[in-house]
Specification:
- This is RUFY4 protein.
- Residues 16-89 form a coiled coil.
- Keywords: Coiled coil.
- By secondary structure, the protein is mainly alpha-helical.
- Helix content is 62%, strand content 6%.
- It has a two-stranded antiparallel ribbon. Strands 3-4 form a two-stranded antiparallel ribbon.
- The longest helix is centred in the first third of the chain and has 96 residues, at 2-97.
- It is rod-shaped.
Amino acid sequence: LPQRLASLAATAQEETWQSRQQLQAQRQEMARLQEELSRARQDGERWASALQRAQREALEREATRGAEQARQQELIRDMKERLLELLREKDALWQKTEGIDTPMASPVPRDPGLCARCHKDFRLLSRRYNCSRLCQGKVCHTCSVDMGKHGRCCLICYQQRHPQAT
């Protein structure tokens, strides 16, 4: 019996020692987890602070962008108004100057077979052109200017219409 009691006591001592080791390991694990929890809370607070700061900055940027957009819309409106004013001024000036630069009609030759400018005979090789401007005279190739889609016009009408060309 004493051997059995000694064996039971040794087993109990061994179990106690193992229980204390497990308890010590669990305490260390719990301390480590509490430290991690503390760090996680600090990180969470930093992230929450950063999020609030980012939201505040986003709201400020949005307000600035809204103000800038309103300023640009006002500028566009002012530019449109100015454009309309300029168009009205241009129309008024055009109406005032419409009759000023009326070129004098050149005399139409009595002989329709002659150029109104150089009085050259229109033949097979010298083509006759009608001036597409005011005088409506008949001119040869040499005495006319090509106006593209508008046909040809005599040099006098062209110079009256485009004084910088002289």
